[in-house]
């Protein structure tokens, strides 16, 4: 009796654990890696977003490392991007602060209480890269790629 009961509980526990740990498969993904530069200099901390050129819901994103390298991910639960044609968006936000000497009146008094006053964030990348365009169109093949080059310019 105890043996049958123990086996039943074991089977139920195993079924519960397997059932609760499954993650949806979703579309197949492949490695999609590259580097982002601005005027030939690697861009650290850039947000890189690939949006499907055909208007489908597929997209992938990454944050570049200190060498400007990034690895796209389309889903939280698995790595890589769905193969297809994409247009890239690149932004990089930095905190905007104002030193005490640049403020007047009451604002200067409040800034004097600290070293600086945070005003918010600002995208420091050229504005032309904030929207998807044919200029930054890339194909991620079925075999994947480790050679995406986002060579951006200030002009």
Structural description of this entry:
The chain contains 2 helices and 10 strands, in the order H-E-E-E-E-E-E-E-H-E-E-E. The strands form 3 sheets. Strands 1, 2, 5 and 10 form a 4-stranded mixed β-sheet that branches. It has helices at 2-20, 105-112; strands spanning 32-38, 41-42, 47-52, 59-63, 69-71, 84-91, 93-99, 116-123, 137-140, 145-152. The longest helix has 19 residues, at 2-20. It has a single domain, classed as Immunoglobulin-like (Sandwich). The protein has 155 residues and is of the alpha+beta class. It is globular and about 50 Å long. Strand 1 and strand 2 form a beta hairpin.
Brief sketch in words of this structure:
By secondary structure, this protein is of the alpha+beta class.
Number of strands: 10
Tally of separate domains: 1
Task: Kindly state the percentage of residues in helix.
Answer: 10-25%
Number of helices: 2
CATH topology label:
Immunoglobulin-like
Can you summarize the main beta sheet? 4 strands, mixed
Task: Give the strand content.
Answer: 35-45%
Low-confidence stretches: 5-21
Radius of gyration based on Cα positions? 24 Å
Which CATH class? Mainly Beta
Structural class of the secondary elements? alpha+beta
Mean pLDDT: 82
Order of helix and strand elements from N to C terminus: HEEEEEEEHEEE
> Judging by the overall fold, what is the CATH architecture?
Sandwich
The CA-CA distance between the termini, in Å, is 80 Å
């Amino acid at each position: 009796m105890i043996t049958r009961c123990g086996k039943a509980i074991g089977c139920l526990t195993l079924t519960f654990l397997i059932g609760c740990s499954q993650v949806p498969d979703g579309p197949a993904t492949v490695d999609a890696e590259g580097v982002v530069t601005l005027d030939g200099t690697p861009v650290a901390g850039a947000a890189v977003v690939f949006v499907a050129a055909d208007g489908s819901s597929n997209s992938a994103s990454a944050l570049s490392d200190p060498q400007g390298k990034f690895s796209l991910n389309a889903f939280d639960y698995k790595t890589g991007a769905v193969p297809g044609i994409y247009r890239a968006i690149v932004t990089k936000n930095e905190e905007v602060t104002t030193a005490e000497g640049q403020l007047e009146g009451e604002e200067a008094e409040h800034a004097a209480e600290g070293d600086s006053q945070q005003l918010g964030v600002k995208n420091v990348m050229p504005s032309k890269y904030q929207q998807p365009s044919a200029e930054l169109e890339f194909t991620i093949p079925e075999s994947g790629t480790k050679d995406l080059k986002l060579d951006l310019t200030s002009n």
